[in-house]
Design goal:
This protein is an alpha/beta fold and 505 residues long. It contains 15 helices and 22 strands. It has helices at residues 25-36, 48-51, 69-75, 95-113, 133-146, 166-177, 196-205, 227-237, 252-262, 267-277, 287-291, 299-312, 353-361, 373-385, 458-490; strands spanning 16-20, 40-45, 60-63, 81-84, 117-123, 152-157, 160-161, 180-183, 190-191, 194-195, 215-218, 225-226, 243-246, 331-332, 335-336, 341-349, 406-407, 410-416, 420-425, 431-441, 446-456, 501-504. The strands form six sheets. A seven-stranded parallel β-sheet has the order 3-2-1-4-5-6-11, with helices on both faces. Strands 17-18-19-20-21-16-22 form a seven-stranded antiparallel β-sheet. The protein has a two-stranded parallel ribbon with strand order 7-10. Strand 19 (420-425) and strand 20 (431-441) form a beta hairpin. Helix 6 crosses helix 8. The chain starts with 15 loop residues before the first strand and ends with a strand. 41% of the residues are buried. The model is unreliable at 4-8, 264-268, 318-338 and 492-498 (pLDDT under 50).
């Protein structure tokens, strides 16, 4: 029986919804949808301070950990339905044991708290196959949650395609970077990718399924393809010829190390991903198509939408944003080596955010960049020599910023007064670049995070980034210190206060 429109007048619409995993890729997208549609949402996070700036004013954020029973009791109080989007794919040690304990804890406390439904996102895979530890754990978590006594609606999905998703970034990096690929057997294994938009639609529709105990639904897009097929489709969308040389070797371990050099994947995550995709992940039970009035798009449309979104803006959420994916990253000089390269540092200042953000909002133009301005001018001159815009555009107003304004050879891409500024580079580069400033704090102190992000094109892009890396340490660190000093000197009441500490991460 399919879900008709009248059934969508479900009581969950007005009840409290718990969302775990809101800092992750799928959870972040789901949060946006729930807020846009007016649901009452409570997010649980181990580090709420990292999530609070991303949520709407009506969304609650509470501190909690699925491995901590006491925090779960508080977080689940008054909740009617809970999304369980937690897994330990990138954690070190026994991630299977962590997943098992977390599911037991969550199910136990959810039952005691009177939660009416748990919605869980697991992974496709035939139970009869010798599944990878990751897929086996995902399915075991579903089983544990079902045993809790709380009605469970479990979705099992394969590859998720969307701007910022792990699989899309993997495909994108391989096709864009490698003129010829040596491909092991796993690239020919069948999968059934689903677009992130369709996945989010399923997750919302799960709120309106009539209570029927515990159910498992296999979901996927319209096409069954291999990773090789997906790479060819991506190539056709980007007018890139994909050349592959199949080989019978390359173990998951060697493949993961190779992916760690070419793509944004950390080798540990890459190894677990490859161990999972060596098994077919296709829909065998199509009952979801009968129950839900959702017609999933095909791979070509999903990739085209992901490319369009990637080119329009920095992805809304990215798999690498997830706190659980931090782990130990393969790096060189402290900078992640992958599709997007990041140089980030922070400084703490004994001032409220509204005072700290003023010099950030005035950056560029006649104000300058607070340190090593002659190097910025030299970079602008070199940009002019190669046909770029240089520094000659300045800025429209010395203090007011609006999205779309120019700031020297940058353009304002996002601006949240007193909190966040993202500048997109418009100088000539072998790639795309962003410079971000984020300020968080209270009435007594603030932390400024400055982040330079570079999306390189081919080998030239990598050479460019690493050749300039020593200058980044000089210029960006000086800029951050200059912003803090300017904020302090501009406020006569706080002139005697000084920055507490700074670090580079």
């Amino acid at each position: 029986m399919s879900i008709s429109k009248p059934m969508r007048e479900n009581t969950f619409k007005n009840k409290l919804i718990m969302l775990t995993g809101a800092t992750g890729y799928v959870g972040g997208r789901l949060l946006q949808m729930l807020e846009q549609h007016g649901y009452r949402v409570r997010c649980m996070a181990r580090r709420p301070e990292n999530l609070v700036p991303r949520v709407g004013p009506s969304t609650q954020v509470v501190k909690g950990d699925v491995l901590d029973l006491v925090s779960l009791q508080s977080a689940l109080k008054g909740v009617s339905v809970a999304y369980y989007l937690v897994h330990s794919m990138s954690s070190e040690g026994s991630f299977e044991e962590n997943d098992r304990k977390a599911a037991h804890n969550f199910g136990k406390i959810a039952k005691a708290a009177g939660v009416e439904r748990i919605i869980y996102l697991g992974g496709l895979g035939n139970d009869d196959d010798d599944l990878s530890p990751h897929l086996r754990s995902r399915q075991e978590v579903g089983k544990i949650l079902r045993q809790s006594g709380v009605p469970l609606l479990e979705f099992r999905a394969s590859i998720v395609i969307g701007s910022g998703s792990l699989s899309f970034q993997l495909i994108r990096s391989l096709v864009e970077r490698l003129p010829i690929m040596i491909t092991p057997k796993w690239v020919q294994v069948s999968a059934q990718p689903i677009a992130i938009e369709d996945l989010i639609e399923y997750l919302e529709a799960a709120l309106f399924v009539p209570d029927s105990g515990c159910r498992v639904y296999e979901i996927g897009g319209a096409d069954q393809v291999s990773y090789a097929d997906i790479m060819r489709i991506y190539g056709s969308c980007r007018n890139i010829v994909v050349r592959m040389i199949p080989v019978p070797f390359l173990s998951p371990h060697i493949s993961s190390l190779w992916l760690g050099l070419i793509t944004p994947l950390y080798a540990r995550i890459g190894r677990k991903l490859i161990q999972s995709i060596v098994h077919p992940t296709v829909v065998c039970d199509e009952s979801a198509l009968k129950v839900f009035k959702i017609q999933p798009m095909g791979v070509h449309d999903a990739i085209r939408r992901a490319i369009d979104n990637e080119d329009k803006e920095f992805a809304e959420t990215r798999w690498s944003d997830s706190l659980s994916s931090s782990g130990k990253i393969f790096s060189w000089f402290g900078v992640s080596f992958g599709s997007r390269l990041v140089d980030s540092r922070t400084i703490k200042v004994n001032m409220p955010p509204k005072f700290i953000f003023k010099p950030i909002q005035r950056i560029g133009g006649n104000t300058g960049w607070y340190a090593w301005n002659w190097l910025w001018q030299l970079r602008g001159f070199l940009d002019l020599l190669v046909g770029g815009v240089g520094m000659r555009r300045g800025r429209a107003h010395f203090e007011i910023l609006r999205v779309g304004d120019t700031v020297d050879f940058w353009r304002v891409e996002e601006h949240d007064p007193n909190h966040f500024l993202r500048l997109a580079a418009e100088m000539k580069l072998p790639g795309r670049a962003w410079l971000e400033f984020e300020v968080v704090g209270d009435d007594f102190s603030s932390t400024i995070r400055q982040t330079a992000i570079f999306d390189p094109v081919g080998l030239l892009g990598l050479i460019y980034w690493y050749a300039l890396y020593p200058l980044h340490q000089l210029v960006f660190a000086g800029m951050l210190r200059g912003i803090a000093d300017k904020a302090l000197s501009s406020n006569t009441n706080l002139q005697k206060m000084s920055p507490l500490k700074s670090d580079t991460s």
